[in-house]
Amino acid sequence: MKGFRRSARLRSPLRVSAFRFLLTLAALVATATNAQINVVDDTGATVAVTAPARRIVTLAPHAAELVFAAGAGRAIVGVIKGTDYPPAAKTLPVIGDANALDLERIAALTPDLIVTWPWTTPAQVAWLRNRGIAVFEADARTVEGIADDVERIGALAGTLREAAITATALRTRIAALATRTVGMPLRVFYQVSDAPLFTLGGHHLVSQAIAACGGRNVFGDLTIPAPQVSVEAVLAANPQVIVAGTAQAVRPEWLERWAGWQTLDAAQKHALYVVDANLLHRPGPRFVDGVVQLCEALAQARRAYGAATAPIIDVPVERGTSTSSSAATGAERQAR
Questions:
Q1: 213 and 123 share a domain?
Q2: Residue 177 in contact with residue 4, Cβ under 8 Å?
Q3: pLDDT tier at 32, thresholds 50, 70, 90
Q4: Which of 30, 32, 180, 287 is most buried by its number of CB atoms within 10 A?
């Protein structure tokens, strides 16, 4: 499944998930020998460890989330500033932020695996890699890729069985989020910040989420992950819905300013909504929770426009499973 595209496979998510679980488990186990464990990260690079990783440093809040989701949270010995979920992640040593890492402190922690993404100090990460430390870059380009990352990290950490169970549960939720709408997609402007005015381009995961919820990103033709746009460009696009992404979905004062532009369809219907950026802007397991929020917002907008929409379907993770206690993320950069 590419992103959220619906196909015949989505009609039986449990059967598909079980099949994928067995295939993935077999494939990943096949790459692990007594001498070395090999996986391929999201950049296409092969990541190898000679034994299951026991000391892991994460260099992005969503990276810590993925490690916890893979069942290896107890192996984390250092995190980046802003890693604030789950609560256990807040107690871990902080070894820098997205702009600068404390390389000496990281080296002193003797990690055998670093989980990062391309946007955290690439030069410093390269220095760590050159010291012989395995580096896994987690930068999923599809929602399905988030589940894949959980499994790959589980293979590196020796927790593949738990990671595969979590990934299967995540895929089941993804399949269940196929929202059924009637009519043309709603034109959506997704706003990250006000001054300067930033949005998200078509290659960002949020654009896939907008499409899954029955919308179309009005700046989806832009290839830059987080482009700066002008008020005039927004007015020309005339979105039917404006969605602001903020931490904890706190409604920003600047969102209401659009109500003053009565030439906008979104202003006329007051279709101005807010979602939690901590969920949607990070390629981690909680991204699906952010999609639920986004779909609820667009469902409200459809009702405002008098369009039909089916109920949002979500399969909650059962309490007591590895997924319910393994989501971990934090205040990462607002957008890529």
A1: no
A2: yes
A3: very low
A4: 287
Residue-wise DSSP of 237-260? H--SEEEEEEGGGPPPGGGGGGGG
Phi, psi of 287 (to 5 degrees): -55, -40
Task: List pLDDT tens digits, range 188-211.
Answer: 999 999 999 999 999 999 999 999
Q: Specify whether 141 is located in the same domain as 240.
A: no
Same domain, residue pair 171 and 198? no
Its domain, for residue 109, covers: 8-176
Q: Are residues 153 and 40 part of one domain?
A: yes
Q: Give this prediction's pTM.
A: 0.81
Residue 217 identity? N
Q: What are the tokens at 317? A: 């993770």
Asked if residue 156 and residue 244 are part of one domain, the reply reads no
Structural domain total, the chain: 2
Taken as a whole, the chain contains a residue count of: 336
Is residue 283 over pLDDT 70? yes
